[in-house]
Specification:
Layout: E1 4-10, H1 19-30, E2 35-39, E3 47-48, H2 52-57, E4 65-71, H3 75-87
Antiparallel strand pairs: 1-4, 2-3, 2-4
Protein name: Phosphocarrier protein HPr
GO molecular function, one term: transferase activity
Keywords: Sugar transport, Transferase, Transport
Amino acid sequence: MSASAEATVLISHEVGLHARPSVKFTKLAKTFSAEVEVALAANGPWFDAKSIVKVMAAKAPKGTMLHIRAKGDGAGEAVDALVELVRRDFDEGADHVRTA
């Protein structure tokens, strides 16, 4: 039986899942051998978390609940790492946000 894991996390980054956070998210997802998917609703549609095109196309704004699931080797670790990245505002906290 294959390992699986899932979690939901709130996007609190000021501009949501835009270009830089999407790149960070997909790069991290690609470090795991597990199949990783994300969705903006619990019932989907689900898309490949390792695809920069699909993640950016989601255009998830601040306040969106991001659903993450993985299956295969390292599924739990993959989900945990991605949740933590989102919780850390993709390592682009307030001091990284440009003001006009």
